[in-house]
Design a protein that fits this description.
765 residues, Aldehyde Oxidoreductase, domain 3, Aldehyde Oxidoreductase, domain 4, 3 domains, 19 helices, 28 strands, binds pterin cytosine dinucleotide
């Protein structure tokens, strides 16, 4: 039977999803359920003087009203990682009692018999606030005299991070050219199709809690609920059925989810909550929000000499559970795919009166790539060199892997030149440059952006899979991942089916059930194919060997003589003397010798002490109308290398989705607050997410450089599209506008912004 690995088969999960039979958290119906609703802060920064819940308690249908005062002894939301430089980590209380630090922060909750009663009663909660001066700009927050959000965090400086060495300064001094650029990675909202949703149910039978939650980390969240609610973890069962997108922001427990679970346990009932789009835009963790000053030293011949990256990262009002992750990524990924003799990076992470920020698809890699690629194009302009030539001169060579960068990471494998060449050939780069000159002579502004990039994938080191073959011979993969739309039910089945030689559609994949899956980490950091896929492969190999041993006993042959072909174990050279899965599996439960374990199953956790480094080249050709600043994307193509592709069609799907998010960030998305911390983009009328018709077509090309780190040779791809696309799009626009003297526009590249940059450049002239 040919291997399924590398085949673009359709997704096993799709018939269910496209016929409306998906089960999202909000679809779970529990009889007698109660509903939670929240009273939220109207202020960006205020002291809580008093909370009067009497009117809400008396409202129809209300079963309970709670504030932070009712949660004495409940631990704050756990922070996954707080850098040692943090002077203090102000606790992220489930419900605050002293002060609120961003608009929309939940201060009290109502539990009622129907959702409308809950919302009406929440409106009756009287909170007296003493408004305090707010600060929303992280640079202003660092200024002396700015409002202090936490007494224990002087100057609002949450933490610092750094990497590399100070040799950078001498190297910059010795450089022929030094390019310094300040760029902004605009704050973006996550906007999953499915908002947050939870159903928590007191489980009278074992005095525990059953939680259904849209999450990327089922097992981690089960632990967090156990700790917050005060129930031993083994009495908490968490289900994450279908999840309508997470994009990094559904990896941790939110205060509203904690309240819902707590109240279900306290009231001995089922309680549910799902947020409205406007609640989601106010309080789900947001992404990016980084200001970067990048300094690149270069010799006259184009050789890079040094890199210095300084970041100011906006944490928002509280440190989200993995709020530090994006900052850490820049410290390690600032050098991209280039050879720098010396480099360093430093970050200041700052509290502001805005929604907390957290990982958002790419989590630090898009920020690092954007700053670096913008600086490389600027260096090319300064040196009067072709930006592609400059990249070629500095890319790490294929024979230099494993390659250790001056800020620490060891890149496993790569051939950056090959991906670049394929992309250049596809767009006929030299021809394009000639055509560009011709069009410029006609007054048309057409430009090209070329990004070469590398990113780490496979973070946090292990994932779990178990394979069981039931008595009928049916194979089930139990995966520790937490997919949110990536297609794990298909790719894990492809891997197991290839090893066991059974039809891919016959394999069931179970995930998102902590009662059925013994352990797991989850899906983030483009890790599941590498780690979960390899765990599945190893478990399948074990299952195959166990079945061979049982078959040998049944066929009275030597194990070494048993061969697996097309789903049948037979004696080598005698295909007629064989047994199918059902016969072997059925026998394994009854007839095995005392030396053999009954049943057929295998558990594996695959771990790596390093990460893999996918890479690629993205190219965009764009035209700008100088009269109104409108941009037309004429062509966009990505050459991506994620090692062995398990399912090229799903790889393309991931790149497509990632691109749409990068396109949104580059062209139209931006969360805005006024100076008091009021959110100005609180609905989808004000916050522009690209519509399908606005996203340009993308061409996908690939190179395949397997990773030596995992048995599949796979690397991740879930985030590549949004890492490479913002600089590609912006550099294309800046290249188009080069004749007008425009060298800088901050994202998002809305037409008015581009037009203003053109006018400013004309005025400057
Ligand atoms: N794949 C493959 N071969 C490879 C690598 C990947 O076939 N060598 C395909 C597989 O279909 C796999 C998918 O690409 O399921 C993504 O694989 P991987 O890169 O391992 O990433 P994860 O499965 O761990 O998913 C996490 C990643 C991240 S970090 C974000 S954020 C993200 C993303 O995936 N959020 C998503 N993709 C998303 N897609 C959807 N629909 N919704 C989200 O919330």
């Amino acid at each position: 039977m040919p291997s399924y690995i590398g085949q673009s088969i359709k997704r096993n999960e799709d018939p269910r999803l496209i016929t409306g039979r998906g089960v999202f958290s909000d679809d779970v119906d529990v009889p007698g359920t109660l509903y939670a609703a929240f009273a939220r802060s109207p202020h960006g920064h205020a002291r809580i003087i008093s909370i009067d819940t009497s009117a809400a308690k008396a409202a129809p249908g209300v079963e309970a009203v709670i504030t932070g005062h009712d949660l004495q002894g409940v631990p704050p939301i756990p922070v996954g990682f707080a850098p040692p430089s943090a002077p203090a980590v102000p606790p992220n209380h489930v419900l605050p009692t002293q002060k609120v630090v961003y608009v929309g922060q939940a201060v009290a909750a109502v539990i009622a018999r129907d959702p409308y009663q809950a919302q009406d009663a929440a409106q009756l909660i009287e909170v007296e606030y003493e408004p305090l001066a707010a600060v929303v700009d992280p640079l202003m927050a660092l200024e002396p005299g700015s409002p202090q959000i936490y007494a224990e965090v002087p100057g609002n400086l949450g933490f610092t991070m750094s990497s590399g060495s100070n040799d950078v300064e001498a190297a910059l001094k010795a450089s022929d050219e030094v390019i310094t650029l300040r760029v902004v990675n605009n704050r973006v909202a996550v906007v999953p199709l499915e908002n947050r949703a939870i159903v928590a149910q007191y489980d009278a039978f074992d005095r525990g809690l059953t939680v259904t939650l849209g999450t990327q980390q089922p097992h981690g969240d089960r632990s967090a609920f156990g700790r917050i609610v005060g129930v031993p973890e083994n009495r908490v069962r968490l289900y994450a059925h279908d999840v309508g997108g997470g994009f990094g922001a559904k990896g941790n427990v939110y205060p509203e989810e904690a309240v819902t679970a707590l109240m279900a346990y306290r009231l001995r009932k089922a309680v549910r909550w799902s947020d409205s789009r406007s609640e989601n835009l106010r309080t789900m963790t947001q992404g990016r929000a980084h200001l970067t000053e990048i300094t690149l030293g270069v010799r006259r011949d184009g050789t890079f000499t040094a890199l210095d990256t300084k970041v100011v990262a906006d944490l928002g009002g509280v440190l989200a559970p993995v709020g530090a992750a994006s900052v850490g990524s820049i410290m390690t990924m600032c050098c991209g795919p280039y050879k720098f003799p010396v480099a360093r990076a430093a970050a200041r992470a700052v509290y502001t009166n805005t929604a907390p920020t957290g990982p958002y698809r790419g989590a630090g890699r898009p920020e690092a790539t954007y700053a670096l690629e913008r600086a490389v194009d600027e260096a090319a302009r300064r040196l009067n060199m072709d930006p592609v030539e400059l990249r070629k001169k500095n890319l790490i060579e294929p024979n230099q892997f494993p390659y250790t960068t001056p800020v620490g990471p060891v890149y496993d494998t790569g051939n950056y030149q090959a991906a670049l060449e394929i992309g250049l050939k596809a767009v006929d780069y030299d021809h394009f440059r000639a055509e560009q000159r011709r069009l410029r002579a006609q007054g048309r502004y057409v430009g090209i952006g070329v990004t070469t990039f590398v990113e780490p994938a496979g973070a946090l080191f292990w994932e779990f899979a178990e394979i069981r073959v039931d008595r009928s011979g049916k194979v089930t993969v139990y995966s520790g991942g937490g997919p949110t739309g990536q297609g794990h039910e298909t790719i894990l089945a492809q891997i197991a089916a290839s090893e066991l030689q059974v039809p891919v559609e016959s394999i069931e994949v179970v995930h998102g059930d902590t009662g059925a899956v013994a352990m797991g980490v989850g899906s983030f950091g483009s890790r599941s194919t590498i780690l979960g896929g390899s765990a599945t492969l190893h478990a399948a190999q074990q299952v195959r060997e166990k079945m061979r041993a049982v078959a040998a006993g049944m066929l009275e042959a030597r194990v070494d003589d048993i061969q697996l072909d097309d789903g049948r174990f037979h004696v080598a050279g005698n295909p007629a003397r064989g047994l199918d899965f059902g016969a072997i599996a059925g026998f394994s439960y009854f007839g095995v010798s005392p030396a053999q374990e009954p049943g057929i199953s295998a558990r594996e956790s695959f771990q790596m002490n390093a990460v893999a480094y996918p890479f690629g080249t993205h190219i965009c050709i764009a035209e700008v109308n100088p009269e109104n600043g409108e941009i037309t994307i004429q062509r966009y193509l990505g050459v991506d290398d994620c090692g062995t592709m398990i399912n090229p069609m799903l790889v393309a799907g991931q790149l497509h989705g990632g691109f749409a998010q990068g396109f949104g960030e580059a062209m139209m998305e931006q969360v805005l607050y006024d100076s008091d911390g009021q959110l100005l983009t609180g609905s989808l009328m004000d916050y522009a997410v690209p519509k399908a018709s606005q996203v340009p077509p993308i061409e996908f090309l690939h190179t395949v450089t397997p990773s030596p780190l995992d048995p599949l040779g796979a690397k991740g791809v879930g985030e590549a599209g949004c890492i490479a696309s913002p600089p590609t799009l912006v550099n294309a626009v800046l290249d188009a506008l080069a004749p007008l003297g425009v060298t800088h526009v901050d994202m998002p590249l809305t037409a008015p912004r581009v037009w203003a940059a053109i006018q400013a450049a004309k005025g400057g002239k």
